[in-house]
Amino acid sequence: MRNDFLRAAAIAGGLVLALAACSQAVLVRPAPSYEAFAFESSLPAAAAVFVDADQLFREVRMTPDPVDGDSLCDEVSYPVDAREALEVSVVGTLERLVRDVVPTAAPLDRQAMEARGLDAVLVVRADTFNVGLTSGAFLSFEAGAELTLSVSAFTGDGLQLRDVVFGNAVQTESGITCGNGSEALGAAVEVAIENAMTELGELIANSPELRASLGDPGP
Asked: For domain 23-213, is the CATH number 3.30.160.150?
């Protein structure tokens, strides 16, 4: 009986060590914004859209709360890759605001824009991306994420818009495995992206300069 107990304890200890040494991939789903924007009519344009999301990758390690944090998962790495999620989110948001959206692998200059029969070029670049994970007691996790995106809009008349949008979020998860930390991180990044997409939509939809340059001064 004692041997069975020692064997079970050794197996459990081995599982904990294996858990602590592993990597927990974080799933980040696209989060375009479907909030109601001020202008109901879409911009009368065919626009190239370039998204630079290179900044949206981080390798996160959990930080135990100094008071009651559980350190079981402090050796687990959480790779967060939100690059594709941001690209899909930007395109999905802008498709509700612009008549025709054409994703491009690089920003177009005026010559290339006109050669392709396009009216505008929209550029969204990820400037900052901060994400962290803290543990509490009994494998509870709190994840935080924030990002800033620079936004530029060009037409045949030149630069019409340059601004910055921001998104942040805090999400908590509780569970019995370190994988709950990855769920908290994924949820936090998704909400932060969606918040930034709402700001992006408002910025594009409510730019009088951009609308006027495209021949639509709005109501």
From this structure: yes
User: What is d(CA 65, CA 114) in angstroms, rounded to the nearest whole number?
Assistant: 55
Residues 156-165 have pLDDT tens digits of 999 999 999 9
Tokens encoding 154? 């060009």
E strand intervals along 26-139 = 43-52, 57-64, 77-81, 98-103, 120-135
Residue type, 160: Q
d(C-alpha 96, C-alpha 112), whole Å: 24
User: Helix, strand, or coil here: 114?
Assistant: helix
Helices and strands: H and E segment counts in the chain = 5, 7
Spatial contact of 121 and 108, defined as CB atoms under 8 Å apart: yes
> Alpha-carbon distance 63 to 106, whole Å?
38
3-state DSSP assignment of residue 185:
helix
C-alpha atoms less than 13 angstroms from C-alpha of 19 in its C-beta half-sphere:
16
Q: What are phi and psi of 170, to 5 degrees?
A: -130, 130
pTM check: above 0.85: yes
- State the DSSP string of 23-58: B--B--------PPPS--SPEEEEEEEEEE-TT-EE
Query: Which residues are CB-neighbours of 86 under 8 A, at least 6 positions away?
Result: 51, 53, 56, 126, 193
DSSP-assigned letter for residue 217 = -
Q: What is the pLDDT of residues 24-53, one digit of tens each?
A: 999 999 999 987 676 567 899 999 999 999
